[in-house]
């Protein structure tokens, strides 16, 4: 095994553990709270996943990428776990967005 292969396998394992943590161990953590605190959420991970696929020449729809991250269709996961954002969450999200604007 080469160092590049080792690194890729380690990164893939870490990514799978992150997904398992977010999807199985902490589905109660709302995406908006992740955005407020960390600047990314499960949907961002799906976008990055799709971008990585495109970089390798693999076509993937937004829905396919979200299903890969959520482990099921996004609408199904959302209905089971996502709650409407509170006014406090929306205000905190706006404050965080202005304090740390995303690049590009």
UniProtKB/TrEMBL annotation:
It comes from Luteimonas salinisoli. Coiled coil: none annotated. Residues 80-104 are annotated as: Disordered. This is DUF1244 domain-containing protein. It comes from the Bacteria. Residues 29-94 form the SMc04008-like domain. Gene3D superfamilies: SMc04008-like (1.10.3340.10). Residues 95-104 have a biased composition (Basic and acidic residues).
């Amino acid at each position: 095994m080469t160092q590049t292969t080792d690194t890729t396998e380690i990164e893939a394992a870490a990514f799978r553990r992150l997904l398992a943590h977010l999807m199985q161990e902490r589905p109660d953590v709302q995406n908006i709270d992740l955005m407020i605190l960390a600047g990314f959420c499960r949907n961002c991970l799906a976008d990055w996943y799709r971008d990585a696929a495109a970089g390798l020449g693999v076509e993937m729809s937004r829905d396919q990428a979200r299903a890969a991250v959520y482990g099921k269709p996004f609408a199904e996961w959302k209905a089971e776990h996502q709650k409407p954002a509170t006014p406090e969450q929306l205000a905190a999200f706006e404050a965080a967005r202005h304090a740390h604007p995303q690049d590009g």
